[in-house]
From TrEMBL, chain A:
Residues 7-285 form the ABC transporter domain. This is ATP-binding cassette domain-containing protein. SUPFAM superfamilies: P-loop containing nucleoside triphosphate hydrolases. Coiled coil: none annotated. Keywords: Amino-acid transport, ATP-binding, Nucleotide-binding, Transport. The keyword Transmembrane does not apply. Belongs to the ABC transporter superfamily. The keyword ATP-binding applies. GO terms for molecular function: ATP binding.
Automatic annotation (TrEMBL), chain B:
Belongs to the binding-protein-dependent transport system permease family. LivHM subfamily. Its main location: membrane. It is found in: Cell inner membrane. It is a multi-pass membrane protein. This is Branched-chain amino acid ABC transporter permease LivH. Keywords: Amino-acid transport, Cell inner membrane, Cell membrane, Membrane, Transmembrane, Transmembrane helix, Transport. It comes from the Bacteria. InterPro entries: ABC_transp_permease, BCAA_transport_permease. It comes from Marinomonas phaeophyticola. The chain crosses the membrane at residues 12-35, 42-61, 67-87, 150-170, 199-219, 225-246, 253-271, 277-296.
Length: 293, 303
């Protein structure tokens, strides 16, 4: 596997009972790119995101996240069932046991992957700035005792966290709302805050689930600019799910098209635009048309 | 007049203790949506630990009351906190993703286990510790007087300090921020890199510590306890938590105070035999008028 892929998804399978939501998904995301995951409704795009971020535990396959400081297998850190081989090799056994006991989706984020949700999931009863502070608990001073006793080092760490929070509030243009409750913000502001919050966890890959949904055209344009800023100035790789084709074609370097839980095409925007399979998936295949008529 | 004032003072001390225990119910409910029915028994365990620690301290010849109470508080909080942590690990964590009913049954089982374990290891007889601090302040009012024992003053002081410290931790510190985030949306919190399992453990430890504070104070005041003492006070504290709006931290404290004061006033002015009937009737009435409790937020269902 080459070093320049930040994310490698191989043969990802996700079953819910008898329903095969994802079937053998394979794609790679290059470091520093803006990539899009598109497809008709129900194609399994959000399910892919949920598997990537550890929200769901995938049924099979591999997800490998290669950030600058760490190499993580997403499915492993969530805790897998024991395999027969584990009982032969104590090291493998200990590793598996460790993740079974202490693993979880928080480890995925700690290895450098952040995400936002299609339906906004802010901490609505906390203030805007608190939403950003809570995301930085890993970088700020972690000692609980220091936090309760309010030591000097702790105050300095808090100060730093606060500065970072305000930096991101500046980027998403919410500085004047810092002390309002997150739930009081308008829809577009909440979307921007969610992106800022994800960025506060210091991710190297950020997954945006329909960031432009519900935004008006000028807000969408702002968002496009912001995504470019994220990539160019903060060295973040962006993976997004989006239905706004204008935006997708405008911003993406690479597109993966899903339909019925399978990858039907991948490539650069020009390629995808003219791919007959993609057109068929979006507009309905010709043989289906005949049935319809 | 003096009876009313006297009962108000008594109610305030009783209520502050209810509030301390109610915190454990309300925080656990807020974070995992489960009623921890073993919480009353955690209080009971802390009463026994208090007695053991007091006995040990006097065995080593320590007789100054401030050292005894501070030492007992610290040691009891530590051991009871460990109990809270262990209960969560053993009885609730394995059931985290199963139905709520399973966790509830597990909690009731844990409560019975604790009672029987204490009954077997410590005996079924009522136990007691001697009165460590006697004396009272007395205010003359007209013909009558109001009397507050020093122990009751200490209860009030320690209970309110504990509540203040806890409110500070939850509202101002980073740990509190992580607790609140986990309470509002545990899945999202974990996606932001917060180890939610650890936060849940910490919440159990905090709840148990508050119960331990209550256990130390009440045991030193009343002196007598048995293995069943956690049941009724647990139910009362649970009532206080529901009264104030379960899930809300200030609600639990307020609910405890209201319950304690109204119960004492009823007992002093009308009938002490029916005080439990009164406090539960109060609960019913408040739930009819405000189903989400005094400070609870009504659940808004999105359409």
């Amino acid at each position: 596997m080459s070093k320049e892929n930040i994310l490698a998804v191989e043969n990802l399978v996700m079953h819910f009972g008898g329903i095969k939501a994802l079937n053998d998904i394979t794609f790679n995301i290059k470091k520093g790119s803006v990539s899009a995951l598109i497809g008709p409704n129900g194609a399994g795009k959000t399910t892919v995101f949920n598997c990537l971020t550890g929200f769901y535990k995938a049924t099979g396959g591999h997800i490998r996240l290669t950030t600058d400081h760490k190499d993580t297998s997403v499915i492993q850190v969530l805790g897998e069932p024991f395999q027969p081989l584990d009982f032969v090799s104590p090291m493998a056994f200990i590793k598996r046991l460790k993740y079974k006991m202490f693993g979880g989706s928080h480890l995925v984020n700690r290895s450098g992957l952040a995400r936002t949700f299609q339906n906004i999931r802010l901490f609505k009863e906390m203030s805007v700035v608190e939403n950003l502070l809570v995301a930085q608990h890993m970088t700020a001073n972690r000692s609980l005792i220091a936090g309760i006793l309010n030591t000097k080092a702790f105050r300095e760490a808090e100060e730093e966290a606060l500065q970072k929070a305000f930096y991101w509030l500046g980027v998403v243009d919410l500085v004047s709302h810092a002390n309002r409750l997150a739930g009081e913000l308008s829809y577009g502001q909440q979307r921007r805050l969610e992106i800022a919050r994800s960025m506060c966890t210091n991710p190297e890959l950020i997954c945006l689930d329909e960031p432009a949904a519900g935004l008006n055209p000028s807000e969408t344009e702002e968002l496009t600019k912001m995504i470019r800023i994220l990539r160019d100035q903060h060295n973040v790789t962006v993976l997004l799910i989006e239905h706004d084709m204008g935006m997708v074609m405008d911003i993406s370097d690479y597109i993966v098209v899903l339909d019925h839980g399978q990858v039907i095409a991948k490539g650069d925007p020009e390629n995808i635009k003219n791919n007959p399979k993609v057109i068929a998936a979006y507009l309905g295949a010709e043989d289906e048309d005949e049935v319809g008529l | 007049m003096d009876i009313v004032l006297q009962q108000l003072v008594n109610g305030l001390t009783l209520g502050s203790v209810y509030g301390l225990i109610a915190i454990g119910y309300t925080m656990v409910y807020g974070i995992i949506g489960m009623i921890n029915f073993a919480h009353g028994d955690v209080y009971m365990v802390s009463a026994y630990i208090t007695a053991i620690v007091v006995a040990l301290l006097s065995y080593f010849g320590i007789e100054s009351f401030p050292i005894i109470i501070v030492g007992t508080l610290f040691i009891t909080i530590a051991i009871t906190g460990a109990y809270g942590w262990a209960i969560e690990q053993i009885a609730y964590r394995p059931l985290r993703n199963s139905s709520r009913l399973a966790a509830l049954i597990s909690a009731i089982g844990m409560s019975l286990i604790l009672q029987n374990y204490v009954q077997i290891s410590q005996g079924a007889r009522q136990q007691g510790i001697p009165n460590l601090l006697s004396g009272a302040v007395r205010f003359d009012i007209g013909d009558g007087f109001v009397q507050i024992t020093y122990m009751k003053l200490i209860i009030l002081l320690v209970a309110f300090i504990s509540m203040g410290v806890l409110t500070y931790i939850i509202q101002k510190t980073k740990l509190g921020r992580m607790c609140r985030a986990t309470q509002q949306d545990p899945k999202m919190a974990s996606i932001l890199g917060i180890n939610t399992d650890r936060i849940i453990s910490i919440v159990f430890v905090i709840g148990a510590s508050m119960a331990a504070v209550a256990g130390v104070l009440i045991t030193m005041d009343y002196g007598a306890f048995d293995f069943y003492v956690g049941f009724i006070i647990g139910i009362k504290a649970f009532t206080a938590a529901v009264l104030g709006g379960i899930g809300s931290l200030p609600g639990a404290m307020l609910g405890g105070l209201i319950l304690g004061i109204s119960e004492s006033l009823f007992a002093g002015l009308i009938s002490s035999d029916y005080k439990d009937v009164f406090s539960f009737s109060l609960l019913v009435i408040i739930l009819i008028v405000r189903p989400s409790g005094l400070l609870g937020k009504p659940e808004v269902e999105k359409v």
